[in-house]
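Progress note, project year one: complex with zinc ion.
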Amino acid sequence: MNFPDYRPRRLRKTETLRRMVAETVLSVDDLILPLFVAYGTNVKKPISSMPGHFQLSVDLIIEEAREIEALGIPGVILFGIPETKDELGSSANDPKGPVQEAIRAIKKVAPKLCVITDVCMCEYTSHGHCGIIKNEAGIVTVDNDKTLELLQKEALTHAEAGADMVAPSDMMDGRVGAIRTALDSKGFSDIPIMAYAAKYASAYYGPFREAAESTPSSGDRRSYQMDAANTDEAIREVSLDIAEGADIVMVKPALPYLDIIRRIKDDFDYPIAAYNVSGEYSMIKAAEEKGWIDGERVMMETLLSIKRAGADMILTYFAKDAARVLAHGRK
Ligand code: PBG
Ligand code: ZN
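Model obtained:
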């Protein structure tokens, strides 16, 4: 059909028609909110590069969890800021650590909320790397296989505290299988793993590292996180994680990697999560504060684009704002 027989504008005439022919729908069910749990009590420390977000202590997370549940957001993912850090990230598997305590507290007040935990060492190591480091002739690298043992322990403390799902984000080889084995051996075979499968070494993580106080003190993460140039490698990473027992595979960041989300959606029949990361959030907030963009519209368009690319769920700092817009319409 050609013009003038076919006129695409006919179906764009009214709000109702546009709703009826919309191919992609963003729902509150798609949203997962990241939370930063701090050691201590009565801590509400603003994260300056992420307006609207705070490091919260467990006592204050309780109120937050009630609000999140009331907004209809189905899940949260927890990151911890521990009291102490050391070379081995020992505090990661403290059964009384901030994440472990927050899981218990949230499950008490909002039992239906899906509590996911980020499993990684970088928030707990003094050097800020996502694993144990070894120094061989002056060259510092992360020791893959030693790190696996620590990740197993960390994931177990999360499961024991009542986590509904664990999400390894370290990008060590074999960690999904290692965590699956550890969980199964302790009777947690029903706890799903959301694998940060295609996680790129990205400058978009900048504000998060302020939030989680996890900037590597030397070097960078390029020997374990993926190179931005690669697509086929993402397919291999996803294949490995699924073979090792991942239930959900994640692409991270989201916006600069929408092509990766789409390719994984086309190649695998598995649920896909996309992480709309801190830098993606901060850019929109900053431009909004300057009055350069309509932040709310850009937020909704951004989240819809991630969904359209093929994500089944989105981890996003916009979760509460988006849930309000979805419930009450735009301002
Ligand atoms: C920890 C982790 C990071 C993020 C999630 N888990 C940071 C990193 O790898 O440096 C980034 C999240 C964000 O930027 O919002 N490995
Ligand atoms: Zn890490």
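The first strand starts at residue 31 and ends at 38.
The chain has a mean pLDDT of 96.
No further modelling is planned for this target in the current period.
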